[in-house]
Design a protein that fits this description.
alpha/beta; 10 helices; 12 strands; 18% strand; elongated
């Protein structure tokens, strides 16, 4: 399936795989040298649990970096639900190269599939409401773009990618600027100077008074920080469609449906990319 993602992936995949193989292989795989160098093999990757597949391009790059002639046939694609014991792909290639690539390739596939799978669970939990689950900057160092791609594969949305592509005015910014109105006015100037990369300005508020201040300042994206569901409903009424409202703070799978039903537009969940358990996948030589 086609996954819409705003950031170009090719260079990022190369960078990620460079780092992974440098870390794992270094000057050479000692154990793989036990296998005759010319031996050709067939391997399969199998899912051991249900989830959502993601990371096939990273997997492919790891394998083909070691064996440019390897032939990989996928039976499922990024964003597709997979079942336990499902055949995901078949690889025909050099045995020594596949052994060297195996761990790095599976690390990417297991991590990104885990993120996509978790996002799918959260997205399904709020199905039928107007809300969308979105990620945060709470990502694994060096793998943010990959993880945010996985969020899209799981059916979620992306918040800002990093500090360089949007402005989020938080409590300390407001305090240092002298108030919400002052902070927002300064943000508009900064956004105008960086119009080629600044996608939005968002203001974080902690109560209804601050919400009114943000709306009066002209804010069109507002983050409701640790609001109760009752306060969220009041905020939605006060907002009356003027700004995109995002709920954040203490969101869990148990609470997200009630939050979505308040009428907010987005719900950000740091756990989507921060607290992940690798999906159980396995590679085996079969011929």
């Amino acid at each position: 399936m086609s996954i819409e993602f705003a950031y170009p992936l090719a260079a990022e995949i190369t960078r990620n795989v460079d780092a992974a193989l440098t870390e794992d292989v270094g000057p050479g795989d000692l154990t793989a040298s036990l296998v005759p160098g010319a031996r050709q093999v067939r391997a399969t990757v199998i899912s051991r649990e249900a989830g959502v597949l993601c990371g096939t391009a990273w997997f492919d790059e790891c394998v083909r970096r070691l064996d440019p002639n390897a032939h990989i046939t996928w039976q499922a694609g990024d964003g597709e639900r997979i079942a336990a014991d499902q055949l995901l792909c078949t690889i025909d290639g050099n045995g020594r190269a596949l052994l060297t690539a195996e761990r790095s390739a599976l690390n990417f596939l297991q991590l990104l599939s885990a993120v996509a799978s978790k996002v799918r669970i959260y997205a399904d939990a709020i199905s039928g409401t107007r809300a969308q689950v979105v990620d945060t900057r709470k990502t694994l160092p060096g793998l943010r773009i990959a993880q945010k791609y996985a969020v899209r594969a799981g059916g979620g949305g992306n918040h800002r990618l990093a500090l360089w592509d949007a402005i989020l005015i938080k409590e300390n910014h407001i305090h240092a600027a002298g108030g919400i109105a002052q902070a927002y006015a300064a943000a508009e100037q900064v956004a105008g100077q960086a119009a080629d990369r600044c996608k939005f300005i968002q203001v974080e508020v902690e109560n209804l008074d601050e919400l009114n201040q943000a709306l009066a300042a002209g804010a069109r994206m507002i983050l409701l920080d640790n609001f109760t569901p009752d306060l969220m409903r009041e905020a939605v009424a006060v907002n009356a469609g003027r700004a995109i409202l995002e709920a954040s703070g203490n969101v869990s799978l148990e609470t997200i449906r009630a939050i979505a039903e308040t009428g907010v537009d987005r719900i950000s969940v740091g756990a989507l990319t921060k607290d992940v358990k690798a999906l159980d996948l396995s590679m085996r030589f079969v011929a």
